[in-house]
Amino acid sequence: MKLSKPASSAVRLVVMLAVLGAAALALAADGGKPVPNVDPAKRGSSPRTEAVAQAALADQVARHADRTKDVLAMIAAARMLGQVGPRAVKHEMRTEGKPKAVDAKASGDLSRDTGLSALLARARQYAGGRNDLNGLVDELAKSTAKARNDGPARFATRIADGVTDVYTLNFAANEPVMVAITGEGTSDLDLSIEDEAGNRICASDGAGDDEICRWTPRRTGNFRIRVRNIGVANEYRLWSN
User: Fold this and answer.
1) Average pLDDT over residues 1-11
2) Which of 133, 174, 178, 227 could anchor a disulfide with 49, C-beta 3.0 to 4.6 Å?
């Protein structure tokens, strides 16, 4: 049946309104910002995000092992880290704010090497002359000699007091993301995530310096990762998939 001109115009109007409505749904009511780049219905995990979680946990165990000189804890940390094969990266980062105090170590090396080989070396140190414990370390060293290095991204740095480190990382649509920080326990570090439009995606602001965020992007895009130091100078590792 052929539509009359008024009916045809009405159909076109309905289609136009539908298109405009879809476009409006893609914008937030305040200022026309795009909707936050996160899909709240998809909070699942993946092997890549689980690897990030394991690497962050291994780092925390290694920190405890260094404090207590616990060889078995250090062996456990090295084994966990070797299983996921973290890859060292060099992220571009800018700093917001000015430190309130002078950091004597600002231009020096990090106080603790948290790489896999360094963990194994300290495990031998903590084992002392015990052949049984050294044997465990040697066995682990052999098994991790050809460890994968395509796992979570790892970036280690030092942060001054009262400042915020800002990173920009790109993540793909519909793939779960996990970002974590692990510090040295000397200050309160907070982690927050924003999308390109400045929408808050996630915030993790506990009392310590181990924080974690996870989300699934709606669309491929850049995200701003903010690490804020509430207290004195600290060191941390930034983990991501």
Assistant:
1) 48
2) 178
Element (H, E) at 195: strand 189-195
**What's the CA gap between 195 and 216, in Å, rounded?**
12
Residues, the chain: 241
Q: Comparing 42 with 80, which gets the higher pLDDT? A: 80
User: For the chain, where are the alpha helices, taking DSSP H only?
Assistant: 5-25, 47-68, 71-84, 116-127, 131-143
CATH topology classification for 47-240: Jelly Rolls (2.60.120)
- H or E element that contains 127: helix 116-127
Inter-axis angle of helices 47-68 and 71-84, nearest 10: 160
**Could you tell me how many helices (H) and strands (E) the chain has, helices first?**
5, 10
* Domains of the chain, residue spans: 47-240
